[in-house]
Write a sequence for this structure.
């Protein structure tokens, strides 16, 4: 007897909960956008450099949007898990992917069966920054320019070693070797900081690393940056020469962007574009991005999409040239 | 030099003892204890989730709170290890080996008390280490190259065998299986995937949490359910049983000292340093005990040493971040993120450009440890009483928290499937008398070991002598041989005795 | 006629043999490389064969040295607990944390032979409330409290 009363009471509570939930469940329409909380997807684990960047934008979006903006980390598979998640989510503008356009493009060729055809399933809403990769040497080493390094590496032949930690670094290394004919051996690391000890002990001659790491270590007087991979010098670090200036033709420019699943209505795309332009144009963001070694970079959604398609092809070429096996 | 340290500490304490910062320390410690106690959810998602809030805070306050969460979780993590045999993170695994048997014997209070007091002592010493020896220790850690890391991992793996209190051969087998499982995922050196069968969830390797929760937590629940009568831990409300006895103190103080020393040193090494500390401490204690057979059945030394090592490692793992700007584990990476958000560039400049930040942090660590002691000791009575809740009400709660914690890693359902698979896997192996602890150590150290081995050989162009040429590596390998001898010789003697008897 | 002296050891031996064989088989297509330039397949293959070796040793001990018997396996606890975990994963995104918690508690309760539905539902409701308050509101975890994200 007591048992059934309890069950009935539970059922009653459950029914009341269901009723309340359906009554207040928000219905998302493009005109009401944003009517719900927004989530930014980050393809890297919490605390990483990328995560800091995404969380910065979440913070800046909050007052503009007037709603809660949360960050969801979906790390793994070199960004594929996050890309897949975003491509499959509802194209209603409540899931925004903040990631590197070049990485998303490169993954098309880095994997045998990429889960997403990014050119068709991902839409760029706004670009955020433009950043290089960097050629670094130990601060104690005698090389002050790329030319000096190349000369020394030619002497050393295949006894030279260099560090890479990200696909971009590997590509940069291959382009460098192709252009100069040096025979340095590539040594892979999981993360750039892992290579620090060996750069310091002289076991490695140089490294191809991301700008955040490179700039931080140059500030600490542990490493010296010799050149950047972009085609033109950056405003963030105008005294760093480009590889192209040193005679090695190269234009590897990483660019971050806010991306959406394809099929998101145009007014929503434009609204998101406006928000990001507003944030990226501010001085505070410029300083923030400069600290990460990049320049603010504003493009229209159409330009961004064109950049994505261009890079899918370009990186396919690079990966083939670098003889990187698709996984 | 000494006068400088005291002067700096005084400045630090002045900053840390402000009402506001005390409040943040308390908040961090409480939050950390809460998530440490909840099985499954750990400091990483919590700190990540609180990072945006730190935007609006002052740098010192933000870091004090986040740090409080970190070592609060260490204290709390030992609670679940002892009470319900579920470790929340790598360092607490070892605490389950003897801590939980102690709880089953009705000595949960003693175990929790020793863990808290040992951790406090270790925390204080660790703080002093940072203050006095920070930069030179960090410099030492910078000497480690790939061959040295490899040799350290080998030493660590050999100690894994000592963890088992059953058959040594099966323990070796479990270590090897753990190594193999650790290799699942993407290979750093070639970029190819191994054993992933196209499943993107394990592309970066099997996650630590599902494996540990599955093999320890879920198996534990199943094991308890199989008892005909759901076990009720003998719980007594006498104060005497809530507190370590005089004998317990006498047995524990030396392990605590040794554990603190091990933890303080190993915590500085990036990657696997602090985890190794707890395992290493257990090995040392087992080897130094008069009756090693007591271990695994509720030997208090097996709780005191590793808990001290754990906490000392947690404190000293701040050193590379605060002095060199290099994070030594995922949580330090988060702290670094918090500093960058505040506009502070982590690195050696922090000590000179923001001395109040550095010394304030150091002082607040000591304060945090004291707070945690004050928080945790009275809670012991509460936890012990919690054990007297009928198990049939307790285990669904434990199961729910575990499951939520695992899901929260990546909000990926696949992680739950992996947990279920490892629960079955662990259950079957347990039925065959194989223990999970050596497997977990192999799992953690395996990939690091292989990565460093292959990289060392690439750097030396295939010359294996590199492991003996580097002094650090040579020393570590020599220590490994010594440990192997310590394990193997008694076995040989025993087998010979058995043979003679027959 | 070979007598099984230690069923546990024999079982362990069989388990190790199986794991090692799986490792060797599925790692077959990975490049082996040489000792000085190890390919991705070097370590896994080496480990797999070592595990097979351990399996043989342990199995041998199972046939020669006395050891404990394997305790009888009860299907009910393990089946229900695993089912509860899988159901949680399947249902969480669809009907939200609160309801899924109730489902989990109820299914897990039936892992015992003497479970009562009413008690399980009540406990489930209580835990659901606690979980939603602590995890979704206090700790802001990205878990849906209700359905319809």
């Amino acid at each position: 007897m007591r048992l059934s009363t309890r069950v009935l009471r539970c059922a009653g509570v459950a029914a009341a909960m269901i009723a309340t939930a359906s009554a207040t469940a928000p219905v998302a329409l493009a005109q009401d956008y944003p009517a719900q909380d927004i989530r930014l997807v980050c393809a890297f684990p919490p605390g990483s450099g990328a995560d800091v960047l995404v969380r910065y934008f979440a913070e800046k979006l909050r007052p503009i949007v007037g709603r809660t903006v949360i960050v969801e980390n979906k790390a793994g598979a070199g960004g594929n898990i996050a890309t897949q998640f975003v491509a499959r989510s509802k194209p209603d503008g409540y899931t925004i992917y903040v990631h590197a356009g070049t990485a998303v493009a490169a993954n098309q060729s880095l994997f045998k069966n990429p889960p997403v055809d990014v050119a068709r399933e991902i839409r760029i809403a706004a670009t955020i920054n433009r950043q290089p990769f960097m050629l670094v040497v130990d601060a104690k080493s005698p090389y002050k320019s790329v030319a000096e390094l190349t000369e020394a590496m030619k002497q050393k032949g295949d006894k030279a070693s260099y560090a890479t930690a990200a696909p971009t670094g590997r590509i940069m290394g291959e382009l460098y070797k192709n252009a100069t004919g040096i025979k340095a051996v590539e040594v892979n690391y999981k993360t750039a900081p892992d290579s620090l000890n060996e750069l310091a002990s002289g076991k490695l001659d140089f490294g191809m690393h991301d700008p955040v790491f490179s700039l931080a270590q140059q500030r600490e007087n542990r490493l010296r940056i010799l050149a950047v991979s972009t085609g033109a010098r950056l405003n963030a670090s105008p005294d760093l020469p480009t590889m192209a200036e040193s005679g090695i033709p190269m234009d590897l420019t990483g660019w971050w962007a806010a991306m959406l699943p394809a099929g998101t209505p145009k007014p929503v795309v434009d609204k998101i574009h406006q928000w990001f332009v507003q944030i990226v144009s501010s001085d505070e963001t410029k300083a923030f991005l400069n600290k990460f070694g990049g320049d603010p970079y504003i493009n229209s959604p159409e330009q961004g999409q064109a950049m994505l398609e261009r890079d899918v092809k370009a990186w396919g070429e690079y990966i083939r040239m670098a003889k990187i096996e698709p996984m | 030099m000494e006068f400088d340290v005291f002067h700096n500490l005084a400045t630090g304490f002045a900053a840390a003892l402000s009402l506001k910062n005390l409040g943040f320390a308390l908040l961090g410690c409480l939050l950390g204890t809460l998530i440490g106690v909840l099985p499954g959810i750990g400091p990483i998602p919590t700190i990540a989730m609180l990072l945006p809030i730190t935007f609006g805070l002052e740098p010192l306050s933000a870091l004090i709170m986040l740090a409080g969460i970190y070592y609060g979780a260490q204290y709390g993590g030992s609670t679940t290890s002892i009470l319900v045999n579920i470790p929340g993170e790598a360092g607490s695994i070892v605490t389950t080996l003897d801590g939980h048997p102690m709880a089953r014997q009705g000595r949960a209070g003693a175990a929790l008390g020793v863990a808290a007091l040992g951790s406090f002592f270790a925390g204080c010493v660790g703080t002093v280490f940072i203050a006095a020896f920070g930069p030179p220790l960090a410099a030492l850690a910078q000497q480690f190259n790939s061959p040295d890391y490899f040799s350290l991992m080998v030493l660590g793996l050999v100690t894994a065998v000592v963890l088992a209190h059953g058959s040594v051969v099966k323990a070796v087998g479990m270590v090897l299986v753990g190594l193999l499982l650790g290799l699942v995922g993407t290979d750093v050196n070639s970029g190819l995937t191994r054993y992933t069968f196209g499943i993107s969830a394990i592309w970066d390797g099997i996650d630590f949490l599902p494996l540990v929760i599955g093999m320890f937590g879920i198996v534990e629940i199943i094991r308890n359910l199989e008892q005909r009568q759901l076990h009720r831990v003998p719980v007594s409300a006498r104060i005497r049983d809530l507190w370590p006895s005089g004998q317990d103190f006498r047995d524990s103080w030396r392990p605590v000292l040794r554990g603190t020393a091990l933890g303080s040193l190993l915590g500085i090494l990036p990657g696997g340093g602090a985890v190794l500390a707890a395992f290493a401490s257990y090995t040392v204690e087992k080897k130094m005990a008069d009756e090693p057979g007591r271990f695994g059945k509720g030997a208090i030394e097996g709780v005191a040493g590793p808990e001290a090592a754990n906490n000392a490692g947690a404190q000293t793992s701040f050193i590379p971040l605060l002095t060199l700007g290099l994070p030594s584990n995922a949580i330090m990476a988060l702290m670094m993120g918090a500093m960058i958000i505040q506009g502070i560039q982590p690195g050696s400049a922090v000590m000179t450009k923001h001395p109040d930040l550095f010394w304030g942090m150091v002082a607040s660590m000591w304060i945090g440890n004291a707070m945690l002691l004050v928080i945790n000791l009275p809670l012991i009575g509460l936890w012990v009483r919690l054990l007297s809740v009928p198990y049939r009400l307790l285990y669904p709660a434990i199961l729910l928290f575990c499951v939520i914690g695992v899901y929260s890693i990546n909000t990926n359902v696949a992680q739950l499937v992996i947990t279920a698979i490892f629960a079955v896997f662990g259950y079957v192996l347990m039925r065959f008398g194989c223990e999970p602890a050596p497997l977990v150590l192999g799992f953690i150290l395996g990939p690091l070991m292989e990565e460093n081995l292959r990289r060392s050989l690439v750097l030396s162009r295939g010359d294996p002598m590199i492991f003996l040429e580097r002094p650090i590596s040579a020393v570590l390998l020599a220590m490994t041989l010594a440990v192997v001898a310590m394990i193997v010789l008694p076995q040989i003697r025993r087998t010979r005795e058995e043979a003679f008897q027959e | 006629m070979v007598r099984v002296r230690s069923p546990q050891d024999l079982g362990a031996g069989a388990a190790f043999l199986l794991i090692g064989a799986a490792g060797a088989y599925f790692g077959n297509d990975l490049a082996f490389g040489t000792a000085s330039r190890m390919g991705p397949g070097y370590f896994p293959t080496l480990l797999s064969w070592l595990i097979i070796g351990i399996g043989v040793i342990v199995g041998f001990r199972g046939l020669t040295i006395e050891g404990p018997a394997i305790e009888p396996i009860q299907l009910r606890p393990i089946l229900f607990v695993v089912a509860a975990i899988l159901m949680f994963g399947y249902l969480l995104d669809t009907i939200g944390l609160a309801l899924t918690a109730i489902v989990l508690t109820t299914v897990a309760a039936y892992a015992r032979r003497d479970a009562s539905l009413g008690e399980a539902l009540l406990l489930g409701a209580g835990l659901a409330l606690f979980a939603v308050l602590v995890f979704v509101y206090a700790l802001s975890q990205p878990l849906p409290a209700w359905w319809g994200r």
